[in-house]
Amino acid sequence: MRTLAYPRRYFAGDKIWVSYLFTELASASKAKKLLFYFCQMKSPKCIIFDCDGVLVDSEPIAISTLVNMANELGIDIDYDYGVRHFQGNAMSSVIKIIQNHTDQPLPPTFEQSYRTTSFQRFTKELKAIEGIPKLLQQLTIPYGVASSGPVKKIRHNLNIIGLLSQFEGRIYSCYDLQKWKPDPAIYLHAATTMGFSPKDCLVVEDSLMGVQAGVAAGCQVLAYATHAQNPKELEEAGATLFYDMMELLGGR
Predict the structure, then answer these.
(1) H or E stretch at 11
(2) What is the widest separation between alpha-carbon atoms in the chain?
(3) Taking a C-beta distance cutoff of 8 angstroms, is the pair 166, 155 a contact?
(4) Which residues contact 200 (CB under 8 A, 6 or more apart)?
(5) In degrees rounded to 5, what are phi and psi of residue 225?
(6) Is 59-125 assigned to CATH 1.10.150?
(7) Quick one: which of 35, 48, 90, 131 has the most CB atoms within 10 Å?
(8) Cβ atoms 186, 176 nearer than 8 A
(9) Are 79 and 64 in contact (CB under 8 A)?
(10) In the chain, what are the domain boundaries?
(11) For position 5, what pLDDT does the model report?
(12) Helices (DSSP H) in the chain: which residue ranges?
């Protein structure tokens, strides 16, 4: 039998209240196990957001730009391929993946061309993930952003959606460490720099590599799975799934 269940988390003050919506419950014992599991989650003292796909709806823009550029070079990949292999990945790894599809070397300006084109598209097309502005307005515990993208991109995109001022001084990039997700370094760095133990931090991610990084850092991890191709793999990696930012506000 199919089981549909998800937790709602309410971030207010220094506590999380957890409630449940259960539909088509497979059994009462299953419900009890889920309730027990979620109630064991500690109230976080700090929240660390990924940026792309969590704060800003940038993934479709970034992935389609990369796919289009590859196609222009005669490399036959599509958007779904890009989602599977590019999302949450370091740019150096993405370039290697694209390079493996052709015997010809990629142009030395490939990454810079991507940055230029994607930034232009971000400026024209980028929007905040639905519910994020309202969520940030109501959070009363510290929060920051930790991304695999360069600081310039993070700042550019947060500025476009009007949220840069809310993250000033708490923007962390893998480029500063030269270590990329799934390495936990970025979340360890963000937590300690903000003055918290990783175990007291909640990570909000949307990619498998990001979830793996958060779990490896010892943080609690939520995965925003609205656009995930394979939500189950995020859950199996150690994240708790949710599908609407309003769940974090109790649907208010």
Answers:
(1) strand 4-12
(2) 59
(3) no
(4) 42, 44, 45, 46, 191
(5) -105, 15
(6) yes
(7) 48
(8) no
(9) yes
(10) 4-39, 46-57+127-248, 59-125
(11) 39
(12) 28-39, 59-72, 79-86, 91-99, 110-125, 132-138, 151-160, 174-177, 185-193, 208-217, 231-236
Catalytic residues: 50
Quote the Cα angle for 220-18-39, to 5°: 60
DSSP 249: B
Residue 102: other Cβ atoms inside 10 A: 13
Q: For residue 175, give both structure tokens.
A: 């480029």
Q: Mean pLDDT per 10-residue run, the chain (252 residues)?
A: 37 41 39 42 88 97 97 96 92 96 96 97 97 94 96 97 98 97 98 98 96 98 93 96 81 48
Beta carbons within 10 angstroms of residue 199's beta carbon: 13
- Which DSSP string corresponds to 121-153? HHHHH--BPTTHHHHHHH--S-EEEEESS-HHH
- Give the CA radius of gyration of the chain: 19
Q: What is the pTM of this model?
A: 0.83
Alpha carbon distance 190, 173 (integer Å): 9
